[in-house]
User: Fold these one by one.
Assistant:
Number 1:
Amino acid sequence: MSITLANASTRFDCGRHTNLSCHGKPKDNDSSYAVNVSAFKR
């Protein structure tokens, strides 16, 4: 089993003179996320 998580915002505040999408800053930086997983025997 492997789980891969990425902190990649798809929402930007555009026009902030950065090199990111739409020259903006990510709106979701430093947000908390929760992931619940369960394993079941087959």
Number 2:
Amino acid sequence: MRRFLPTTLPVWVLMIVIAGLLFTQVASLVIIYHDRSSSDEVIDLYRLNERAFWLAKLMYSVDSEERKKISAGLTNSTLAVNLASAPIVTANNTSSETLSELEDIIAARLSKFDVIDARIRLDPAASPSPALSDVVSTEPDANDVEDDFAVFAQDLIEADRYTVSIQFKDGQWLNFSTPVTPPGPILTARSLPVYGLVALCVIFVSMWAIRKLTAPYRLLEEAVTRLRDDFKHPPLPENGGKEYASAARAVNQMQTRLLEYVEDREYLAAALAHDLRTPITRMRLRLEQLRKSPVRDAFGSDIASIETTVQSVIDLAQMQITEEELERLEFWSMVESIADDYPAATIEAPAGDRARLICLARPTALRRCIKNLLENAINYGKNARLTVSTAGDMITLEIADDGPGIPEAKMESVFRPFVRLEHSRSRDTGGSGLGLTIARGLARKMGGDVSISNRPSGGLVARLSIRKAMR
């Protein structure tokens, strides 16, 4: 169930807005329906009272025979009237307090017309009268007004009816019935598009507002992600909402402290490595004064290894401390010039126009990154095959070798400083364990990345991805 739930704040907020909109709409329709029903009931009771008054007034001054003629002429699609010696409503209403009060009101109001009793009953819909059936049937070419009349007449047929019995002093009962006003539909073919349009407008406005509100937080997320690769990225703007400003201020402070910590560490490492150069130089000078022997050669090899490590530490520190400007570079030309210096490297020309391979990078950093990857392939795989390709807005350089490869579980660990895999890479080839670390760090500072994977046929392939320059 959890996998179907949204995972981002904007989608959650949008879902809450839509749910709130639906709840509000349904609640509004229910309230409107009940309010309309209450208003219709008041109108029906008022109309019933008025009809009873005018019928009693009309029948009061005429004799019994004349009353029958009048009642026959009054019957229509919404009113059925008859005179009888017995009431249709056999007893006063006791189930509804409202109708009971209305009986008293009608009896008291019509007492001046010799009315001595009034009874009201609410009956369910009965079979339609002929008059109503005539109203419902319309011609095929009827206009909109006639169609509306037909629909309303059909609703009257299917509606409940008030039946009223009024007794005069002479014992005659006036019985009439009138339909209850049918509740109109809340949603119709005309109103439904309006509701849908309003709902869509609210949703689109909500989406726009949510996007505007969450834009600073997306910027905050991107900035925090960039801290992984570049501590020197420009700080976040601290304007905007109070919550965002506080979060941006905290991120900026964290970035400043991390940068100070890294710079202090790199300055210390560079200083120590630099100070080691003097005693290493003395050791090499004294070594030259010794006679040639296996011990002298082994000692010289150890000093060379120490010099390589010291130089790598200095390079790593300079990578963090120094900052080059980004430039538009011909990527293919740089790769070709670097590969020419290594006889064990072969390069495959890319398909298409080489001049289009323009990247946005730091020249020294990119050159160092490519050289580290190339030397790594040659040192551990004896040879290197270079291939350049493009995909989207990225240029990819693949450097494949024929070495023993690296266990899948240790693919990421080789990018850590001073990590060397003794079982997968021969230690006799030298190296300080900083080549891949420096290469990935330089690439990520330029908006690219470095990754490695084992080849199915054996060996390793390193991939350098760098962003194309915008035209």
Number 3:
Amino acid sequence: MRLRYTNLQTRILTALITVIALVMIGWAFLNYYMVRRIVTEELENRSTQAVHRLSNALELPLWSYNRETASSFILAEMAGSSIRAVVVREAEEPNGIWLAFVQGTEGPRETSSPEELEEVRRRAYTEAEGHVIYRDMELGTIQVYTDDTLARELLGFLIFLTAVLALFLGVTITITVSMMLNRIVVRPVRDLLKSVRRVADGSYEPMKTPTRDDELGKLTREFETMASTVLEREEELRHSLQEKAAMLQEIHHRVGNNFQILVSLLHLQKDTLSTEAQTTLQSSHNRILSMAKVHERLYSTENLAWIDMPDYISDLASTLGTSFECRADAVDVQTVPLKVELNTAVPVGLILNELLSNALQHACDPNESKAVEVTLRRRDRDGGGSNDGREARGDKETGRGNDEVRGDNNGGTAELVVRDGGPGMPPEFRLDQTTTLGLSIAQTLVKQIHGSMTITRPDTGGTEVAVVFPLSDGAQTTI
């Protein structure tokens, strides 16, 4: 999963902006409550003062019932103020209205409608009431109602000021924090991520070590130290592997040379022996030669654990054909591209040596090509896919070795078939009762690799020997 550089910075800024917005909203609500309270107290104070002034001004007009003078005082008080209505009632008629003015669209106007005054009272923001007293005698009452015009103006200004201040602080804090995050967090994380990718790509070149002493600086320095340690250990492992590979190649080379010396000694010894002894010695010579070719191939390849079977089988068949003085094309080799482990290749090579030597001994004709057929095929993991066709041909089975292929069969199985056109096995032949050295060696080696061996007599004549053996997981079908 690829890390995007902007994710960390964006998330932190989003969280910070959210916190700032919540603080600003809380601050705005608090200011609204406080300003509303202040405005309410101010309006109540103004209403009280207006009632006090009108109480003093209306003593004589109310005493003398001078409505014109009283009206002038009330209009003067309502002019340019937030007073919504003024109601004057006589003490003798407390429920009656002596004089009342309400604020209209074109200014204050007189009214005597109780419904209109009740509507004004219901919508008033504040209400104040006072008494008109003249010479210790109460003449009436004055009621002053104010509206919320001033409150709306103050609250609108407060909201605008809060919004501007919040926007300014938000932008300032966002830019400042963004620059700080880019310098303190994002840039070091980006540099560290480049180092991680560089190491993941196999490059261990050190980057510029940060001088900062915070956690990110320490993390980057520790990562560089870890990368350097990995580089040193990788170099040590590489050198050790090269040394061991060279040593192993030298071992295989020396083993192969020793086998060649044994082959040469046997060849020199053969000329001084009888014909029967020479035949026996030649069999030992071929067995040693089959093992020598395995080590020869390991010495000449970079892969010291796997043997390329097609080349190995072709080389061994050519050598054995020459040994039995057969034609160069006496052995027809048909194999699939397959590599097997060394522990399997050596026994399979010895088995092939025994089977092919026996086939060439009985079927080799200097005038006939393809007297012997060698086939190597890979079978499916479920045991099918051999396509040998023996059941379809009606071949007769004369002997069977192991009945079951055992061992680690996770890589499937392979089948090695050697078929010749010689006289074939006698009818009474049974593989489990054989006393010949070659087939006994082959049976022992088949058991060693947990395989099975079957000998049949095809209807067309000759003998066919099939060896099935398991493959490990690493067995490769090369191309």
